[in-house]
From TrEMBL, chain B:
This is Ferrous iron transport protein A. GO terms for molecular function: transition metal ion binding. It comes from the Bacteria. InterPro entries: Fe-transptr_FeoA-like, FeoA, FeoA_core_dom, Transcriptional_repressor_C. Residues 1-73 form the Ferrous iron transporter FeoA-like domain. It comes from Arcobacter defluvii.
Amino acid sequence: MQTNVITIALVGQPNVGKSMLINSLSNARLKVGNFSGVTVAKEEVFLEYKNYQIQIIDLPGAYSLNNYTLEEKVTKEFLDNSPYDIILNVLDSTNLQRNLLLTSELLALDKKMIIALNMSDEAEKESIFIDEIQLSKILGKPCIKTSAAKKIGIKNLLDEIVNKFENEKLPTKLFFSDVIEEEIETIIKLLNECNYKTNQTYRQLAIKLLKEDKQTYKLFSEDPIWIKLQPILNEAFKHLYIHFGTKNIEDIFNDEKFAFAKGAVTETVKQDSSKEKTLTEKFDSFLIHKFFGLPIFLFLMWGLFQLTFEIGNIPMDLIDAFFASIINNTKQILGENQLSSIIGDGIIAGVGSVILFLPNIVILFFGIALLETTGYMSRVAFLLDGFFHKFGLHGKSFIPLVTGFGCSVPAYMAARTLKNEKDRLLTLFIIGFMSCGARLPIYVLFVGAFFGEHNAGNVLFLIYICGAILGLFAAKILKIVVFKSEDEPFVMEMPKYRLPSFKLIWHTVSNQAMMYLKKAGTYILAASLLIWFASNYPKHLDIEESFNKKIELTTNEEEKLNLQNELSLYNLENSYLGYIGKFSEPLFRPLGFDWKMSVALETGLAAKEIVVSTLSILYGLGGENDETSDSLIEKIKNNIPFASAMSFIVFIMIYLPCLAASMVFVKEAGNWKYLWYLFIFTTSTAWIMSFFTYNITKLLIS
Amino acid sequence: MTLDELKLNETVEIVAINCDNILKNRLYSFGITKGVIVTIEGLTLTKSTIEIKVNQSKIALRLSEASKIEVKYAN
């Protein structure tokens, strides 16, 4: 019998450990980051405690409720209009004054509220002592010291939630200075007299009216009470203007809030003001150093790509051998027929070639998650803003762009942190230039085939950097030609450095890996089957027969092999896939692609992993009787000329990401026409760049 | 004097913020407002972005934004 549901709105500024707190409450699966806007989506968590069903809604981190960012808009919207029982306000104990600014805005909402003084363990370490009993008295709301990381105070918090729910709401104690309180009183009196019907309290409405809240005015202006309210408001504003010496009502209320927060802190916080540098300052002194900052960042990125290749390669041979043996075994058990071909050459080869790259993907995502949770990301945005600004991008664009190295889908979503619509569109358009994790397998395959072991990591790094630089220039051109706009101001918090929580990184990485495998198991499995079918049908029985007769007639073994090769090649070229490839080949011939590569590119529009599967199926079938080893890398090396391979890498680097990403792109950009623009823009850029690469490489090596 | 004219490690008090309400509110929500003491903690090489310390928070600003913040040396 669970009838009592308590709904909690979890509110706090970014980087106060909100998501972490939720995690320690119920072991929910949630991503925690140090960068503003990690939890843009609404996250809900359910838990049971003392016969209550507690529902916690994690609202996006907001520095205030003044609609500056999308997160703030979402949070304000929810707090104003959705049903909930209690606000749980999470504060960073080490930065109480700034956090209390938001609290004072929440107090004005006049709801049941609990305050969690989070990171209390860190505060103690920094010799910051908070008198939470005194603070509770000042705010009129229970304050509870917690530490989400150390799981301190969690039970107290739950007890308080139940306690708060069972008891009547106490009057809120957010008091303004006498001048403002007087005006609030007058408005409340009028509302009382008119018996105005509303689901908000009169005090709440009065404060909103004085704050010139547009929605409230809209509400009142359609009501007859407006006629009586108007003169009272006029009088009130006149008083305030005279008293505060400014006509800016926001300034007046901001000063009030600031005085409130400062007052509360002076009364309750004792801090040993030591001049000693904090750990964060020590780190910052070299990580964002004038000269060393950028080189250090580039070095870290370089290291990440080296690791991706070096460590990622260790299990690769094992996985490769594993799938090769499965294919062989299947064929032995089932014999050489259609069924064994569909299972071996279609399903196992296709899916196996994707799983092959799982280690690389995991390492890359691990690195990005590490950058995100430690707080280093914001430093990089700081370092790069000046540079980015020259290309018409915002320092914040860095976050979606780096996420783009992992996967374009979350990257497109991360672009929401950009407030200005044109800045956002610009970022969306160039995210594709940041090679996503799914393109990594193709690079690894080609780089492995055409460059030595010791060079592979460097070349990989070069590919990624080239893509990024190309993206910057594309941004500059787009900014000048298409997206002319005012610049969005760059004001960003640099959160404290925090040791990454292993558990949270593990969640992120394992989620990404699972998503990748899921894609391999469903989407790519289906695509592999389709490609296998398209490359094996239609059958040309008469031709096959005549070849078979010739093979039977020849006694020379070598001749037999040649004929067999000729037959499979003929079959492949005259399959459905062959037709498509042949049809589009003229388009790609100037880039040095044969029809197999053309087909691979086209199937890659669905998902980049399929490019590898397609190549593996196409070259696998065509060269079945080849005397060389059956590893995919060898096949690529033997069948594709160097210049074509380089040109292929460049094309892959630039052209449209996968189908899923394209759908998200449409959603985030807000219009289908943008996808069309993106397609034309990326494909033509890719074609032109590949054309140059192919011809220059050919000149250089000849 | 405005915030963008300062050198590294200088400490000043904010006198006024001259910009539209949207940016002013944003700055305010980070605790950057009249009467607050700030310290310049970092500068990028190209002098395009600065890092300031306000109470316990560190905030990154572009220099064009910093030029809208009037300051004086604190006593």
